[in-house]
Amino acid sequence: MLNTLSGRFLILTTVFVMLAEVLIFVPSVARFRQDYLELRLERAQIASLALLASDSIDAELEAELLDNAGVFNVVLRRDEVRQLALASPIPAPIHATHDLRGVSPLTLIRDAMDVLFDPENRIIRVIGDPVQQGGLLIEVTMEQGDLRAEMLDYGLRILILSAVISVVTAALLFAAVQTFLVRPIKSVVAQIQSYADAPEDARRIIAPRAGLRELREAETALQAMETQLTGALRQKDRLAQLGGAVAKVSHDLRNILTSAQLFADRLESSEDPLVKRMAPKLVGSISRAVNLCESTLAFGRAEEPPPRLARVELSQLVSDVVDAERLATGAEQVEFVEEVPAGLTLRADSEQLYRVLSNLVRNARQAIAATGGAGRVTLSAREEDDAWWIHVADTGPGLPPKAREHLFSAFRGKVAKGGTGLGLAIAAELIRGHGGRLELWRSDESGTEFAICLPRSAPGAAAAAAQ
User: Fold this and answer.
1) Is the dihedral of CA 292, 294, 299, 300 positive or negative?
2) Which of 39, 47, 304, 376 registers the highest number of CB atoms within 10 A of its CB?
3) Domain Histidine kinase spans what residues (predicted)?
4) Predicted confidence band of residue 290 (pLDDT cuts 50, 70, 90)
């Protein structure tokens, strides 16, 4: 019970209601005492008027008047003269004097608490203003035992009423909490448990239906999270299936390319000048294709292999990429510009960097070709104190907004129609393996530019691999 929201809420509600009732009880008891004493003063004044109406009364009538007023004697001050109107023997010394004229609320509360916690039937003197301006003041002597009994009876009735109000209020609030909070929360928890049993099932995604705004916002956030998680799990399954299929294709393709590589090696012995010039590039392309197939097989088993760092002459690597893309250009009016400083050498895995640049240049060429007009692809590089920067820029139409949102996510950042969205994801992963980063530098109607940042200092294992 104490570990439940409704149970704790019930206890706190009861405590707060009782605290509020105590704050009401104390002043009300003090007010009851003041009214009781003022009533005694009023009765004493009425009794004294009987004496003033006649010159004298007998002792029996005087005792009856005092008994009806509940006092031992009455003193009136009229016309600056203080006179004993009614009197009878006082059984004990006067314990305290209470003046009700202009008394503060705190004093009334203090005196009331003194009476409640004092079981002795003490004699007290009470001073107040006469009613109907019947004099300057009136003073009576009385016992406080009857006053205390009346106050206890009144307080008991107040406490019983407070307890009833507390129980009813707590019960109503308990029912309200159960209806508006506990049941909706339990419903959300049950839905989460149901979703956890089969997170790939989109039918189990929560549908916000709560009436409370805060709880509905929580359900909406939960719906978004479950939707993303379901999509990610489905994507993971598709990637796993694709990985198996690609591994099988890469295995067979590697065998085919190995045979093609053997035939290409024989072309190098040809006497034809054109064949002699093209044969090394053909052999290099086939070798890269074989390496790519082997890397794909390795990726299917684990992940992209770590880069084998070595000194790479960037201008030669860029020339190989551009030559390969020029062969694929055909009738396309695409100009390739190489602005790489001669002799610029950086530390990287040449095969992986080739794949990155090939992906970026191919995307740039296809973007220009899609416009049906002419364009230019520019590859530039610079060396800084702590990093090497390589830029690939084109004059194409720029990336669509949807492609920018998930640019480096597999299957979600595809740019060209019919693409898979893998090229940029693979390129970003390869660059991260070098300790660098691939960034979208700009993309607007004037074209798109990507930037590769490779650190000059190789961390940990990368430095060891380079050595």
Assistant:
1) positive
2) 47
3) 248-458
4) low
